[in-house]
């Protein structure tokens, strides 16, 4: 499912959507240490009877998604820290400064940043990290290396 979706949408898929989907899918991915080789998923959003995710399919999906990323560059952003998902270490920056066209950028932060993220919700912060960009050179996703109050 993930590989077919990624292949059909190419670089037009929103990075936040991809990241959210991959985080959710990783929780369902067959665990080798538990001797699971595949998982079948069925839901209203999945057409047909169900969908099997195995390691081969996961590897193909990961390759397709990575191939659609524009190379990573270091980026600094100043924005409001919003929409935090502590379970997977993600937050969204909203109301970007510096004339970016995008409304927000999803960020993955390190465990060492957890206390800062908890104490700076809805506050303006500065973030520096490795970013993925779309074909128009707009930031889509940042792997945070450093952050502080703006």
Output the helix-strand order: HHEEHEEEHEE
Strand order of the largest sheet: 3-4-5-7-6
Give me the secondary-structure category: alpha+beta
Q: Proportion of β residues?
A: 25-35%
How can the largest sheet be summarized? 5 strands, mixed, barrel
Please state the average pLDDT score.
78
Number of strands: 7
The percent range for helix content is 25-40%
Helix run count: 4
Radius of gyration using CA atoms only? 17 Å
Shape: elongated
- Low-pLDDT runs of 5+ residues are none
Distance between the termini: 41 Å
Task: Give structural attributes.
single chain, 4 helices, five-stranded mixed beta barrel, 150 residues, two-stranded antiparallel sheet, alpha+beta
Question: What does it look like?
Answer:
This protein has 150 residues and is α+β, with helices and mostly antiparallel strands. Helices cover 27% and strands 35% of the residues. A hairpin with a 4-residue loop joins strand 3 (73-85) and strand 4. Helix 1 (2-9) runs parallel beside helix 3. The longest helix is centred in the first third of the chain and has 14 residues, at 15-28. It is elongated and about 50 Å long. The termini are far apart. The mean pLDDT is 78.
């Amino acid at each position: 499912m993930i590989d077919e979706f990624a292949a059909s949408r190419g670089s037009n898929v929103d990075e936040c959507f991809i990241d959210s989907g991959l985080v959710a899918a990783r929780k369902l991915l067959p665990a080798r240490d538990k001797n699971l080789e595949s998982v079948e998923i069925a839901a209203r959003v999945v057409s047909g009877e169900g969908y099997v995710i195995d390691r081969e399919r996961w590897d193909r999906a990961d390759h397709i998604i990575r191939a659609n990323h524009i190379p990573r560059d270091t980026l600094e952003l100043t924005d409001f820290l919003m929409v935090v998902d502590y379970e997977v270490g993600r937050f969204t920056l909203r109301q970007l400064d510096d004339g970016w066209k995008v409304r927000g950028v999803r960020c993955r932060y390190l465990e060492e940043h957890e206390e800062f993220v908890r104490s700076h919700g809805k506050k303006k912060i500065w973030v520096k990290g490795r970013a993925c960009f779309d074909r128009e050179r707009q930031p889509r996703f940042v792997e945070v290396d450093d952050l502080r109050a703006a």
